Amino acid sequence: MNEKPIVIAICMGSSCYARGNARNAEIIQRWLAREGRDARVEFTGTLCEGLCKEGPNLRIGEKTYRGVDPAAIEDILEYECGGS
């Protein structure tokens, strides 16, 4: 059975990048590798999505997280993608 991957899209527009998504992207990549989720998660960067004032922004599936703090990333990933 082929499971459809979970899509994680992180905004890499200049505002979100500067506000913390550069660090958030690193945390996500480390978490995916550590939890062995690489195969069932598609992790991608996006250009500005027009929510700059609310950034840094992260979309998982259809849900958008705004003002994402690096300290909250792992909790969000555990909730959305499941941990080990």
Can you give keywords for this protein?
84 residues, single chain, alpha+beta, Glutaredoxin
Structural class: alpha+beta
Mind telling me the CATH superfamily name?
A: Glutaredoxin
Measured as a percent range, the helix fraction is 25-40%
How large is the share of residues in beta strands? 15-25%
Catalogue the unreliable spans.
none
Order of helix and strand elements from N to C terminus:
EHEEEH
Quaternary = single chain
Summed up, the helix count is 2
Give a description of the structure.
The chain is α+β, with helices and mostly antiparallel strands. The chain has a single domain, classed as Glutaredoxin (3-Layer(aba) Sandwich). Helices cover 37% and strands 21% of the residues. The chain contains 2 helices and 4 strands. Strand 1, helix 1 and strand 2 form a beta-alpha-beta unit. The longest helix is centred in the N-terminal third of the chain and has 22 residues.
Q: How is the topology of this model organized?
A:
Layout: E1 6-11, H1 14-35, E2 41-46, E3 58-60, E4 63-65, H2 73-81
Parallel strand pairs: 1-2
Antiparallel strand pairs: 1-3, 3-4
